[in-house]
Each structure stands twice: as C-alpha cells, then as structure tokens.
Amino acid sequence: MAAHHPVGVGIIGAGNISDQYLTSLTRYPDLHVAAVGDLDTARAEAQARAYGVKEWGTAADVLAHPDAEIIVNLTVPAVHAEVSSAILAAGKHVWSEKPIALDRADARALLDQAAAAGLRVGVAPDTILGPGLQTALRAIARGAIGSPLSAQTVMQYAGPDLWHPNPEFLFARGAGPLFDMGPYYLTALVCLFGPVSRVAALGSTARTVRTVRSGDRSGTEFAVAVPTHVSALTQFESGGVGQSVFSFDSPLTRTGFVEITGTEGTLVLPDPNTFAGEVRITRVPQRGREAEWETVPPVGVEGGRGLGVLDMARAVRGGTPHIAGGDLGYHVLDTMVSIDEAVTSGETVRVASTVPEIPLVPEDRDPYEATL
Description:
CATH topology of the largest domain: Dihydrodipicolinate Reductase, domain 2
Number of helices: 9
CATH class of the largest domain: Alpha Beta
Low-confidence stretches: none
Structural class: alpha/beta
Strand content: 15-25%
C-alpha cells in the first residue's frame, strides 16, 4: 500500500470563522493542520488545542513552519493583502478569506507577486465547490431551463451587530453587506453566467453609528463607514443580467435567495453561503395552474469551509489548476469595487477584468478520501 502524504496547512487568524475552517480541515485526510497563529497567541493556543493541532503561536511562527505548504489567511479584510503578501514572501501558497484585498491595486500586486514566485493564490468563497452550486451548473449546462437570461439575489437582515461580539470591522471600509456577503452571491453568478461586464448601483446608510448587541462589549457604539444597503444591477459578457440586494438594514431576514431564469424555466439555488441544499426548477405553468416544481438530484459530497484549500492542495500535488483561484477572486473584487464606485458616482461602471470559464468539480470527488 502506497504511503499517504497529506499537505501541510497553517492558519493565521483564530477568530470566529476559524472554527468552521478547523472543523473541516482537520477532517480531510489529504490535509494536515500544522499550526495556528494569531496576534492573540492565547486564542491561537485555545483553537489549536480544541481541534488537536499540536503547534500554535504568532503569525511569524506559522510563516516559518517547515510543514506548512499552504497558509490560510483568516485575518480581517483590512489586512488580507498585507498578510497574503507575507505568506507568499515566505514561499508558501496562500488561501485567503474573501475579499482578496480592499482595492484593485493591492489585489493585482498580490497576483503578480504569486506569479513571479511560482506560487498559488486561492480565494473564498469555496462554497462554489459544493453540491449546491455544482448541481445547478450541471442542470444549466444540460439545458434544464433553456438559455439563462437573468438572475435575482437577495441578502438582507438587520446586520451582524446583532450577534457578532466585535462587529466593527464588518462596517469598516472593505466590508459592509456588499464586500462581506457579496462575494458569495457574485461568485456564484460569475460561475453561472460568466464574467461581469458592467454594473449600476444605488446605496444608503440607515445609521452612521451602531451598537454592539451581544457579548461582553454589548452597548459599545461604533461608527459606520460604508453603505449598509446596496441595490446593484449587473450585466454579464454573455448578455445575461442580474439584480441583487445586499443589506444590513432590514428587520425582515431574507438570505440565500438566488433565482436564475431561462427561456424555458426558473432554477432556484440554495444559499450560496452554504455548500449544499435543494436545487429546484419550475417551468412555464399552464394558465390558471400553480407553478409545479421538480427537485434536481444533487451531485457530489458536501464538505465544508476549507474545501477550496483541499482542492488547492490536491492541485499542487497533481500539477493542475485549482478552481477557486486568484483570478476569480480578483474579478469578483473588481465587480464589487465597481458597484461601490457606481453607488458613489450614480453612473454605470464598466468592469475591466475578466475570468475564464470556471471548471466543474468532478462528480466522483470525495473530500474525505485519502488521495495523496
């Protein structure tokens, strides 16, 4: 029997999202979590111990760890580019939480740095690798709704200040509902329709000061630096159009709403912030009858956060491209920055970047199989 050689992974950032990553990364046989690092080394130690990781320390400790081939960047958005650049400078591949950076220049510099060093950049969300979106992509590819024409997405609720113990960064530059939650919806739409070519948008800020409502800091006020409601129109190079709402201002919670309408039917996707869920199709009903629905049989194994890290690890060993790559992350960032510019200017903004067609995940891929 051949020896198994999992890819070593380091994690920088031991905040809330690290639980989801560590839960998955420590269960994928093709990965070995070598170390966890954070500015707060006590927090890094607590997370490492909780998930059976043997080493912890500072970010520098993770960068220097000899077993870490890929380092997962789970820091706050404001330092994504800086930390990812340090990871590349240390000779490691980087997987970054979204967004890849706060602006186009920093994102482009990061991709150029990676290319010059022969290293890889991967960017969340990796929910696009799960059975939810993969099932929908296959249904569209086989013509289940005819030619795709338009998309509608909605993500609205009262905001993360309701539940997050330290929500300030989610209302700072590079966050807000557009940059925090937009990547899930826009990445899914790019996978379904192809690159965005231009956008138009309007935005508003309901309150310039918000209050922490949970945890030890409950009652603490903080400033809001971004629009907390954005309504965006997107046009794709393929000719399709989309309309999206991203809001932290709604008492009525509606999240995970994604509908794709084609010439012969409408396809409803599960929440793009999840990896699986029901994919349904309705076709043009006969007059006087309610719409009838069919459920599309799911394809693939669910997995969880870190599925993109696993895909990158297998691709590194196999010498093949990984799916949720830096070019996709850059195009989604470019689209979001363009939407933000459209909110400010009131003008339609062209999206200069593009991205190749995103490949499908092989149907027989199992994240819980040891393949390396």
